[in-house]
Amino acid sequence: MTSRLVETVSINYEDFNESFLTCGTCMCTYDSQEHIPKLLPCSHTVCRLCLERIVEGQTRDTASIRCPICRDVIQIPRGGVATFPPSFLVNQLMDLMARQRRDIIPKCSKHSAQELLFCETCDIVFCTVCTGDIHCGGNQEHTVIPFSIAIKRMSEILLHKANRCLVNLARAQDNVTEEMRKLDANVDGTFEMVNRSFQDLIVLLEKRRHEVLQNLQTVRDEKRKILREQLDIIQGEKDQVERDSGGLNYQIEVRNITKKIGDLNEKLDMTTTLIEPRENAFIRYDFKHNSAIHNIEQALKDFGRVRVSKTFPALCTAKYDPLSITHLDWVVKVSTVNYHGDTQTSGGDPICADIRNGGGGVIESTVCDGGDGTYTVTYTPRLEGTYRLYINIFDRPIRGSPFKLNVTETNNPVVQVGDRGSGEQGFMQPVGVAVHQTGNVYIADTGNSRIKVLSEDLRFLKHITMEGLAQQSATGISSTPAHNIVTVNWRTKQVTELSVDGSLVSHFTCADFVEPVCLAVNSRGEIIVGDSGAHKVFLFDSSGKLLRRIGSSRGKSIASEDPGQFNLITAVAVGRADDVLAADSRLQVFSRSGKFLREIYPEGQGKGQYGGIAVDTDHRILVTRTEKGRSFVQLFTYSGKPLFHVDSFDYKLKRPAGLAVTTGHHVIVVDLGNDCVKKYRYK
What we know:
Oligomer: single chain
Structural class: alpha+beta
Distance between the termini: 64 Å
Radius of gyration: 48 Å
Strand content: 25-35%
Number of helices: 6
Largest sheet: 6 strands, mixed
């Protein structure tokens, strides 16, 4: 094996002394008397004499100075500059240089004239004479340098590493000191909150005390009023008796005296009723008559608590999808642990999330506490770009923060199944789709004259074939409140209802049918059929009885498109309160009674064609639309405000037809041009 000797430059004592043992301010060599090396909090070393001169030269008496090297503000210790800690490394180097005033070149113990070499690859010292001018240590080229240079290089690395350690330790010291300051500030604030909360209790107790005392005074006043009224009656009767008996000495006629005696007999009977007080003096204060005092005691035991947290932000992690899609909700899950890495099992930590783009713009986000030591950060990006997610706990970043989030407008399907064919995975001109109450998906595989049944995740389950699906013309499909499936065949002009296993339930037709191509079923079980040939929408009850007609043909002579007029109807759907939505090149909304309500997205009129309509549980309207050679899913509010498009640059739609919403804010789209079915997430 080969070795290569690396030429290096040796640093002599003077160079080393000037670089490492000289004060950078006064350019004097450090010593143990005047120019004692002092280590500043910023990790720079300055001699004590220079520090004293800096303090003496200040015009104002302050407790700080600026480092003459980096200009950081340095707080002077209470004992003055002399109490700054000594620079341990500089003192060690001074001791080393005091013992070694010249370069010492390590020599071989057997060959005194031979300089030792050091192999950096093998990390060994060797003598070329002892090894016979050959150094072997494996199947690779080795880097060999003089051992004296290796010692110096290691010393430099040691010094560099030590300085970095000191910088990190100083930073750690600052961080811990700052955390202690925050702790004291939080304790002070918490003290105030404790005092305020218990003062509120005292206020409530005092209020209740006043209410009880006020009640006591009210009861006393009511009792006194009754007794006072009785006293007034007694006094009045007493005065009357005294007046009546005062003139008896002058009465001569026996008749008058007899009358007064009779009156006094009556009064005597009446006075016996006044002897008993009409009110009593009983008043007693009870506070143990119920469980209130016990409840208060228990409530006071539970009132207030001092919460702490062992969460260690530097070890907490976040799980997220680095690639987000515009207009969809995305969740970042934060898991917290303590200093020892143990999972936290309770919440309550003050977690903050901030999402910003390159220009400083902020994406609104919400934080939800799971109560089990986990937290979720939810955000919905509106624009494509690169964002940064900052997650802090106790104003300290968690591990990996900030996180890079890439946002794209491309919304690829979650699942895509099918290709052209007649097998389990095959489709031939699929048109309609319905989601059953069980979650299964029913596809009108029109070209194969069948219905393909798929699971919610689009796995094949079975095929349904029957007479109502014949002649490759069953295009419309929907589920009913009775958990059945209903289809419409534009060639046979038959509306067929079948069970989920494919058995015929009922069927009907209408004399007004010309080319019925689509249908929907409302909450009443009424069947809505869109007829592109008749340019009308028909509403039937569940038995097939015609209830009403909606719309009319535009006609070739009509210059403008009036409300309620249709050309080639492509889709119908049921909206809020059983409204009827119908589409051709425009999207119109009618009440169940047939009254025109509004047109959705009138500015898109004449610029494209709709293929399917669906309304989700949040009353958002989803449509498939082809415009200028581009096909996509478009979302509107129920009032008609455009929201956004669902488009995929990697899996482009080609003549999308029917669509249906399913759980988890997913939409299933029948891609007629690609003979497949695609499932997208739209929120």
